[in-house]
Amino acid sequence: MRRTTTPPADQRLEISPEEAWAALPAVYRAVGLDPDIRNPSIRQLGVDRHRFPARILDRRPSEFFNCGVEPGMNRPLANQGRIDAQIITTVRTRSDGTASIVTQISAVATPRGAGGRSECRSSGLLEQVIVDLIRDRTAAGTTGME
C-alpha cells in the first residue's frame, strides 16, 4: 500500500489568524484530541502523545495513516494495532493578513502480539479535517471560546 498524496504543508483560510486560533481548541475537541501543547504566543496547539482508538472519526486508521503492511498478510498495519501520534497545529499569518494552517503529524504503529513498531506517515486526511472544521466553525460564528 503506497501513499499517493503528500499532506498539504500549508493551507490558506479566508479568515483572520485570530478567528482560526479561537476556533482551534474546539476543533481539537471535535476530533477527540485533548491538547497538552499550548503556545499562544506563536498560535500553536497540539498533543504530545495521543493514542488513537480502533476507529478514528468513524473511519479505519489506515485512511489517516500509512504505516506499511503486515508481513505475510498484506493488511495495513494501521488497522492491526495501536497508533500513537504527536499532532501540532500552528496558525500563521500570511502576507495578506489571512490565516494559514500548518498541522504536523508524526506517528508510530505497534501491532498487537508479536512485531515491532513501525513509523507512520499521514495521509493528509486529519490535516484536512482540522482545516475543514476551522472553516465550518468560523463560518457558523462558533469558535468554542465562549
List keywords for this structure.
single chain, 146 residues, alpha+beta, 2 helices, 7 strands
Short structural description:
With 146 residues, the chain is α+β, with helices and mostly antiparallel strands. It has helices spanning 17-30, 125-139, and strands at 11-13, 37-39, 44-52, 65-66, 81-93, 99-111, 118-122. Mean pLDDT is 86; it is low at 1-5.
What does this protein structure show overall?
- This protein is α+β, with helices and mostly antiparallel strands.
- It has one domain (about 10-95, about 110-140).
- About 20% of the residues lie in helices and about 35% in strands.
- Strands 1, 2, 3, 4, 5, 6 and 7 form a seven-stranded antiparallel beta sheet that branches.
- Helix 1 (about 15-30) packs across helix 2 (about 125-140).
- The radius of gyration is 16 Å and the shape is elongated.
Give the arrangement of secondary structure elements:
Blueprint: E1 11-13, H1 17-30, E2 37-39, E3 44-52, E4 65-66, E5 81-93, E6 99-111, E7 118-122, H2 125-139
